[in-house]
Amino acid sequence: MTELAAPPREAGTGVKRISHWIGGRTVAGESGRSGPVYNPATGEQTGAVDFASVEEVDRAVQAAKQAFPAWRALSLSRRTELFFRIRELMHDRQEEIAKILTSEHGKVLSDAKGEVARGLEVIEFCCGISELLKGGFSEQASTGIDVYSIRQPLGVAAGITPFNFPAMVPMWMWAPALACGNTFVLKPSEKDPSASVFTAELLKEAGVPDGVFNVVHGDKTAVDAVLEHPDLAAVSFVGSTPIAKYVYETGTRHGKRVQALGGAKNHMIVLPDADIDMAADAAVSAAYGSAGERCMAISQVVAVGDVADDLIEAIKQRIPKVKVGNGLQSDSEMGPLVTREHRDKVASYVENAPAEGAKIVVDGREGDAPRDGFFLAPSLIDDVKPGMKAYDDEIFGPVLGVARVSTYDEAVRLVNENPYGNGTAIFTRDGGVARQFQFEVQAGMVGINVPIPVPVAYYSFGGWKASLFGDTHIYGPEGISFYTRGKVVTSRWPDPATSKVDLGFPRTR
Ligand code: NAD
Fold this sequence. Notes:
There is one protein chain. By secondary structure, the protein is α/β, with parallel strands linked by helices. The chain has 2 domains: 269 residues, Aldehyde Dehydrogenase, Chain A, domain 1 (3-Layer(aba) Sandwich), CATH 3.40.605.10; 183 residues, Aldehyde Dehydrogenase, Chain A, domain 2. Helices cover 37% and strands 22% of the residues. The longest helix is centred in the N-terminal third of the chain and has 20 residues. Bound molecules: nicotinamide-adenine-dinucleotide (NAD).
């Protein structure tokens, strides 16, 4: 195991410089632009990340373009072998990756390890690439004619990723892209960029050739350069809905294949027959885990019939037990939010709730949380309805709203009329109702007594409505399809019996 070089420090400061990774090595940014990276648990700036110019993005794309012919020609067995090595390395270095995640994102270490573990599942899936790329074959489609299909890589693909899963979401993209024979340029979130550089170093250590995986950091300038680059064939995006829409429209206008996953407002319906303790445990972990900064977080409970009072009481009882603290401390269960601005924005939804007609049951601004850093303790708000900002916006923080409705039909209508359609869940003991819910609910991922139904790696992940622009979900079988294009070969060989050379074939059969 080689030790990875420590990143250079800005002269005279404790702030590390985070640079691009192009052609298999660190490349210092030359644009003169950079952004701050914080430790959200202390509020201190720990890093400065270089922001790429259009030319720097081009350099990364050219490195990937150059690496493509040899990479796509590598046999499936060699690519598989490499993926097994990548899997082992990432697995062995899981703890280090998790610490990097905690230090820049803030999520608690156990959660960060969980993130790496879920990303590893996608890499494990990609170890089966030989099977996944198998085509079809029709012998004797017409007399003497065989027809077969193959799937080939697209060329250079790019990924643009959000701050909330700095290791896993990039894995959703680069792993299937590389496994399918594409080369890759990653533009990670500028808020927590170090995990991507560490990934690049590990891929090199595993034996991935230089130029196959590149990282450029930056903001809108870098994203636009990606979307407009003529040598990029495909773009995968995960982030907020307005940017997802922009990325989809701009990328497709420039002739690219684009999958753009957006934001969410995930509802959890609790029916009167549900196990209240089970539902309350699920609501607390799904709403406040990772400080609510998950696209599959539950942000809205829909309490049906007379379940509301008991359920709210059960959630309220549990909230003080959620230990809020620095993610590196082993007893912390919820860390800080990613930036001070985001923390303040999330807190404003709680502050404004009473004026909107909702009722604060637990106020996170007064909760037990460290004063340094960007902490906000869990909040619970009752009577949150459409038309209120606390309902209509994706808050993306530890704020759980509860809506009270009288019937199952009303609850489903609420979910279906919401513009987002990422995940949803129902809590009930009634299998027939659960089946009806799965049949009629308009969301891409459905949980039945499971609050965060993130699909396992051999299914694909994706929402409906404003949660996805494009038609392909990410990773799993749809990921393989996204990063390849089909080719169908129709072939006829001369009848060996007509050969001028005597092959020992009878003239007639
Ligand atoms: P974001 O949309 O602000 O940023 C995502 C990426 O887009 C980043 O790389 C960022 O640099 C870039 N970006 C930001 N503003 C841009 C602009 N004006 N023009 C071009 N590029 C721009 O999202 P975020 O705050 O990093 O992440 C949180 C959001 O991501 C939430 O909305 C969450 O629901 C969503 N998300 C969705 C999924 C999913 O699978 N659907 C998964 C994770 C996160």
